[in-house]
Specification:
The chain has 435 residues and is mainly beta. The protein contains five helices and 44 strands. The strands form five sheets. It has an 18-stranded parallel beta barrel. It is elongated and about 80 Å long. The N terminus is likely disordered.
Length: 435
């Protein structure tokens, strides 16, 4: 021990006592080695499941055991499939026969499903969803892959109305297909805290689909992890938010997803039942779509308080954000380096769309008209703060036609190339603050 270390321990005599207590009593080691139920395809449900050499055969048996005991950890060893789960009694399996693995009611205490030895829950070749969690269930999933599923609602996973599910580090929902939600269909509450929802495909919601209000009204909270490389034939390559649903992005990344509308996120509502997306931090980047490559609003509400929407590319309009009769509140954050082949490199407002800009930065975006912001004749654009960079600045937005900073479509005089750093407001009949 060097002199500095010696002095450190002399100044902290309680630390010596504490580590001695650990060595004798060992309670932190017990916490690290918390008891678990084990599941392996070569196991037997007549086992007690409490050791790796005496595992259960089915996930359903392990969940039932955990529900009825104080042991709340389940460890999956290797791959589980339809063949292994078929040993479970019919009353514990999906009554609709749509899912290989089924959790009907795990109770109000969180159960952790983790894995080792490349753990996988697979539905490959079965034409079924991988996992359905419903009832009064509280489940956390980590260190495991959910793949090979196919279903109209959530190829990889379906989260029922009253269920709360959390995805943590090492968990991957990948390689699944569906109509609504290639990766996950959410009627209840789902938290993405780590891991990834990746490489799934669907008609709507390639990664995640939040079910509409009359089917539960899904709630998605993203505090980490990523939603990446998913595809939707219609809307929401990464996430689709249906009417009456809520998505809050606090951290993490939504990147590399593709769709017709909303490569990253699509918020689609109806009058009196809008969809809501709040972005407090995180990144939406490198997504592709025809309209709204980063974010697509159709009767939706989007509030951006921080974070970045950058390097997204639209084949038509709205490289960063596209709003059709939606409401976009930009409070802080950055919309930068997005591209649109037609209108609105950063933001495109269409048919009643509203942009309320009280802060933030719109910079380095490009399109034919409205490099930073494009607005049609029936939109409302209010700016009381923030900056939209114009011509001849290092952070300039660029338009091949008119309006490097911003452009209004109904008349040649409604164009602006200089940096917009002052307040202004206009609607369909107002020209205030425009050249």
């Amino acid at each position: 021990m060097n002199q500095m270390s010696r002095k450190k321990y002399i100044k902290n005599p309680l630390k010596i006592v504490f580590f001695a207590f650990i060595a004798v009593c060992g309670f932190p080691l017990a916490a690290q080695n918390a008891q678990s139920y084990y599941v392996k395809a070569t196991g037997f449900d007549i086992n007690n499941g409490l050791a790796e050499n005496a595992p259960f055969r089915t996930l359903g048996k392990a969940v039932e055991a955990a529900r009825q005991s104080e042991i709340k950890i389940i460890t999956v060893i290797g791959e589980l499939t339809e063949a292994s789960e078929s040993a479970l009694p019919a009353q514990l399996r999906d009554p609709l026969r749509e899912s290989v693995f089924y959790i009907r009611n795990s109770g109000t205490v969180d159960i952790i499903i983790t894995g080792k030895n490349n753990a996988v829950l697979s539905a490959s070749g079965m034409g079924k969803r991988v996992l359905k969690i419903e009832g009064n269930s509280r489940i956390s999933i980590q260190n495991i892959v959910v793949s090979g599923g196919k279903s109209a609602s959530g190829g990889g996973m379906a989260v029922g109305k009253n269920a709360l599910v959390t995805l943590k580090d090492g968990a991957f929902i990948s390689g699944n297909t569906g109509t609504s939600g290639g990766g996950i269909f959410v009627s209840g509450a789902f938290t993405l805290a780590g891991g990834a929802v990746s490489k799934n495909t669907a008609t709507n919601g390639g990664g995640i689909f939040l079910a509409p209000a009359d089917d539960g009204g899904g709630i998605l909270s993203m505090t980490g992890g990523e939603i990446s490389s998913n595809q939707a034939a219609n809307a929401g390559g990464g996430v689709t938010i249906s009417r009456g649903c809520l998505f809050t992005l606090d951290n993490g990344a939504i990147w590399g997803n593709k769709a017709q509308g909303g490569g990253g996120v699509a918020a689609a509502g109806v009058e009196n039942s809008v969809s809501s997306f709040t972005m407090n931090n995180g990144v939406i980047s490198s997504n592709q779509a025809v309209w709204g490559s980063g974010v697509y609003l159709y009767e939706g509400v989007f509030v951006m308080t921080n974070g970045r929407i950058n390097t997204n590319a639209a084949q038509d309009s709205g490289g960063g954000v596209w709003s059709y009769n939606g409401f976009f509140s930009l409070i802080n954050g950055t919309i930068a380096n997005n591209k649109a082949s037609r209108n609105g490199g950063g933001v495109c407002l269409s048919e009643g769309g509203t942009l309320d800009m009280t802060g933030g930065i719109i910079s380095g975006n490009s399109s034919v008209c409205g490099g930073g912001v494009y607005t049609g004749g029936y939109n409302t654009f209010t700016k009381t703060g923030g900056v939209i960079y114009g011509l001849a600045t290092a952070q300039s937005n660029k338009a091949g036609g008119n309006g490097d900073a911003a452009y209004k479509s109904n008349g040649a005089k409604h164009r602006r190339n200089t940096t917009l750093d002052t307040a202004f407001q206009f609607g369909s009949d107002s020209d205030e603050g425009w050249e």
